[in-house]
Amino acid sequence: MILPIYTYGNSVLRKKSEPIDSSYPNIKELVADMYDTMHNAGGVGLAAPQIGQDIQVIVIDFAKVDDKKDPELSKFRIEMLNPQILEMSEEISTEEEGCLSVPGINENVPRSKYIKIKYLDTDFNEHINDFADYRARVIQHEHDHLEGKLFTDKVSPLRRQFIKSKLNNIIKGKTDCKYKIVK
Q: Using the 8-state DSSP alphabet, how is residue 69 labeled?
């Protein structure tokens, strides 16, 4: 089921999300709905707060990513429950990011090139993995949502001032989206 995406200005996006356990009802159905919602909106990652749920769940699917340097990238698909970043490299990469909850705005964001993360899958099995480059970037972006942070928090103060009117327009509902949103 395709769900509406909560946009900039909605309080759920600024709230720290709660961990879940195996008693959480219908987690696999929720994850399937998150994938449907993300694919419908043309995204590569989605965190539960973006659909109004203040729980620690993220989904990522690079099926539509075509990267000549990393042909395996398009096969990357993962669900993470209760993810915890254990390590982040000091080596930083700055690349352009956008967000389904901040439609129409893209900015250069610095992120660690490599991370180590612990998480649960939808069967509540624990995993610890290392991720690099684009995978690490998207995981960090989605993990930020679980902490109540947005990519716009990481841009320079000058750039933040530059996009302020666009952010205010999102809050007012003056944004052009091809997917259902909640302001």
A: T
